[in-house]
Amino acid sequence: MLTLGGQAHGSFCDGMRRRDFLKLGGLALGGLSLPQLLRAESQAGVGKSHKAIIMVFLAGGPPHQDMFDLKPDAPSGIRGDFKPIATNVPGFDICEHMPRMAKMMDKFAVIRSLVGSGPDHSAGQCLTGYTDLVSRVQGGRPSLGSIVAKLEGPIHSDIPPFVGLSPRVGHPPWANPGDPGYLGLAYAPFAPFRAEGSDGKTGDNPDSVGLKLDESVIIPDRLAGRRSLLGQLDQFRRGLEQSPAIQGADSFTTRAFDILGSRKVFEALDLSKEDPRLRARYGIGDMKQEFDGPPCCMDHFLMARRLVEAGVRVVTLAFGRWDTHSDNFSTNAERIPKLDMGLSALVEDLHNRGMDKDVSVVVWGEFGRTPQINAQAGRDHWPPVNFVALAGGGMRTGQVIGSTDKHAAFAKDRPITYPSVFSTLYHNLGIEPSTAVPDRGGRPMFLLDDREPIQELI
Fold first, then answer.
1. What are 253-256's contacts with CB under 8 Å, separation 24+?
2. Under a CB-based contact definition with an 8 Å cutoff, are residues 336 and 67 in contact?
3. What does DSSP say about strands 359-364 and 93-95: parallel, antiparallel, or unpaired?
4. Is the pLDDT of residue 5 over 70?
5. Are 325 and 375 in contact, with CB atoms under 8 Å apart?
6. Which of 13, 182, 240, 376 has a CA positioned 20 to 30 A from the CA of residue 124?
7. pLDDT, tens digit, for every residue of 386-444?
8. Gap between the Cα atoms of 448 and 430, Å rounded
9. Pairing state of beta strands 162-164 and 314-321?
10. 361: which strand partners?
11. Residue 253 near residue 240 (C-beta atoms within 8 A)
12. Residue 209, pLDDT above cutoff 60
């Protein structure tokens, strides 16, 4: 193991210890050796084109009937407080608190008849296509990002193929950025804003922290300390170039140093480099958690675009806590506009940069909410039906797929499963959904059981 060390008593401006800041055997991946990670990724080679996915997880179960499937003619105990507004797609109405998206719904496709949600408060199904129970029974289903990391490899040697922006939160299953499952830790995401694994275990041991940024407020000043560290890395690497040990290292160890010493990831996360007008369009948020759930961090939408532009293939993020058993309308009157702002800015930005044909955006939660409003003005868990919003990826947008009954309780027509959505995403990436990857025992495991992409989208 090689450690990039400093004085034990020193610290950066945000309080992080200099001692053992970077260790080659750690990279926030549970202590996995980085050369091992690189060696495992290389087995699949590098993809020929830069297709990418940005996946937005709405933790807690967003209210489908208060966002994309309003029922204004339903009884008062069901229809809710929000009014529908027209979009730029005829006959396609959405919530009044999403005026920005309403003006550009021709760039989105919404599925109103997503079925098969599990009962768990977990990001797992939105990351793998399978419920947590099924995933455990099958030995741990890998997340889409881990699959892509294995099959496609990195675009650039110093940029990880899979990045998870979800921070540590009070309810750990909501903070899961995408477990590698039976593929092993070599294909886990690079998680810059978390000091722990998705199981909630802390990562305070310097040997396992790796490239960890701050879990508190993300502002350019905090990244400035990282930029000063890069100067130390440059000096360290110049000294290593003449080292017989490094000269004799294999290519995987050399590439490990390329990633650890690269400025590209840090620069992609440094939003001070963006035009202030564009950053204002996205909105400037903080990392304040909502009780035990993810924050509404507007910055993560812009970071996701910058990471993809830098060469990352899959970026996951968790936005907000949507588990509204009480005060559903008052809290979502504040939360939905934030999603409207960040998501519309992201999709618009991708189109303006000519990235919309290659980058798919998917937005969803673990289940919907009950049609009936409860005594606390809230909606409870409702697995029977949910929604998913999609954009980019060369998909045919400006349409609604599927419908629900008059109370938004059950799918009325065109029920679509989570694996079908994943088949479409893999299709957008140029990956055949019938592909198999080996599990820990070497047995071939198909990526999906339902391997048909959604025909209306492709």
1. 253/24, 253/35, 255/35, 255/38, 255/157, 255/158, 256/24, 256/34, 256/35, 256/37, 256/38
2. yes
3. unpaired
4. no
5. no
6. 376
7. 999 999 999 999 999 999 999 999 999 999 999 999 999 999 999 999 999 998 889 99
8. 15
9. parallel
10. 54, 391
11. no
12. no
What would the two tokens of residue 320 be? Answer: 């907000």
Average pLDDT of span 189-211: 48
Q: Is the pLDDT of residue 330 over 90?
A: yes
Q: Which of 391, 426, 218, 389 is nearest to 314 (CA)?
A: 426
Determine contact, residues 85/95, Cβ cutoff 8 Å.
Answer: yes
- For the domain spanning 50-210+271-446, the CATH number is 3.40.720
Instruction: Report in angstroms the alpha-carbon separations of 294 from 60, 123, 318, 334.
Output: 10, 11, 6, 15
Band of pLDDT at residue 288, cut at 50, 70 and 90: confident
Residues 34 and 4 sit within 8 Å (Cβ to Cβ): no
Please spell the DSSP secondary structure of 226-243, one letter per residue: HHHHHHHHHHHHHHHTT-
Q: Which residues of 116-127 are buried (b: 16+ CB within 10 A; e: fewer)?
A: bbbebbbbbbbb
Residue 43 has pLDDT above 80, yes or no: no
Whether this model's pTM surpasses 0.70: yes
Q: Which residue, 182, 210, 185, is CA-closest to 196?
A: 210
286 touches 297 (CB < 8 A)? yes
Q: How far apart are CA 416 and CA 425, in angstroms?
A: 14
**pLDDT for 203:** 34
Give the tokens for residue 398. 């400006």
Residue linked to tokens 């919309």: 356
Which two structure tokens, joined as six digits, stand for 98?
């999403």
Number of neighbouring beta carbons within 10 Å of residue 99: 15
Instruction: With beta carbons less than 8 A apart as the criterion, state whether 451 and 441 touch.
Output: no
Q: Tell me what pLDDT residue 268 has.
A: 92
E runs forming strands in 101-210: 108-115, 162-164
Give the other-Cβ count within 10 Å of 440's Cβ: 12
Q: Are 128 and 143 in contact (CB under 8 A)?
A: yes
Residue indicated by tokens 């990392």? 287
The candidate with the shortest Cα–Cα distance to 333, out of 154, 56, 98, is: 98
Question: Alpha-carbon distance 148 to 142, whole Å?
Answer: 10
Q: In this structure, which amino acid lies at residue 380? A: D
Which letter does DSSP use for residue 392 in this model?
Answer: E
- 215 forms beta bridges with none
